[in-house]
Specification:
CATH architecture of the largest domain: Alpha/alpha barrel
Helix content: over 70%
Subcellular location: Mitochondrion inner membrane
Structural class: mainly alpha
Number of domains: 2
Keywords: Membrane, Mitochondrion, Mitochondrion inner membrane, Repeat, Transmembrane, Transmembrane helix, Transport
GO cellular component, one term: mitochondrial inner membrane
CATH topology of the largest domain: Mitochondrial carrier fold
CATH superfamily of the largest domain: Mitochondrial carrier domain
Pfam family, one: Mito_carr
Oligomer: single chain
Distance between the termini: 24 Å
Low-confidence stretches: 1-20
Order of helices and strands: HHHHHHHHHHHH
Number of helices: 12
Radius of gyration: 22 Å
GO biological process, one term: transmembrane transport
CATH class of the largest domain: Mainly Alpha
Largest sheet: none
Length: about 325
Amino acid sequence: MGNGVKEGVVRLREDAEPVLPAHVSSKSDHRQVLSSLLSGALAGALAKTAVAPLDRTKIIFQVSSKRFSAKEAFRVLYFTYLNEGFLSLWRGNSATMVRVVPYAAIQFSAHEEYKRLLGSYYGFRGEALPPWPRLLAGALAGTTAASLTYPLDLVRARMAVTPKEMYSNIFHVFIRISREEGLKTLYHGFIPTVLGVIPYAGLSFFTYETLKSLHREYSGRPQPYPFERMIFGACAGLIGQSASYPLDVVRRRMQTAGVTGHQRTSIVRTMQTIMREEGVVHGLYKGLSMNWLKGPIAVGISFTTFDLMQILLRHLQS
């Protein structure tokens, strides 16, 4: 085969989508979805387990009127360890895994599908989406995942702020809430969750994809190194969580109102109460500095794990 023909084939492979028979294309799509689900599930599990003690401590401050500081956060961690043992720092993590594994799997898989659909609509390949569709793909992915897994998030928050005697396991939380507070309580705080997920997921995916795109453009390498992915993910987590943090505090208050003594009210009333009693900085942004520590770590691990798993699975399939 001549050089000109070879170059033409290389260009065809790089610049054009291969035309496959319908049954082959369908099988390939199913494999991609399964690959995204598996990679997303593992990414979410590793990321959340790594920061679970910090996450639990943050929730304790979010749902109480205690002033947050690094010293107080360390004291909560230390006394939890002394009084309840080392593994108690991961209390509620089983509920987190029950939520995070399907949440992350759905979110990452949905993001890949939304990228593909929006890319097709705008005439772009998914990885080369322009800024607004890139932001929209992330926001839609986060909203989809949050909508399908919300009751598990509420259960996890309840387990994080209550003693072991109150709820023995995940199923016990569901049973007691259903019996004592009604089934609709399982979706209390859903609206602020979705309102917070839109900027969080949108900006996180947007930032990470943009940094990868800029890296390809300026480095000349098609793939970043793992530590570079971690840095891109950390930046994505920092921006996404800072933008949506006040709504995260509001949803935690609404989720745990039944067990912390706070009155169950609307989003606006909950936000007004927090600002009136604790102020804007010490109320709506309580624990944000801890999020700046745990958020970049978790999101960095999550995005890096997903990408590396995708690469590994593609190699195994080929």
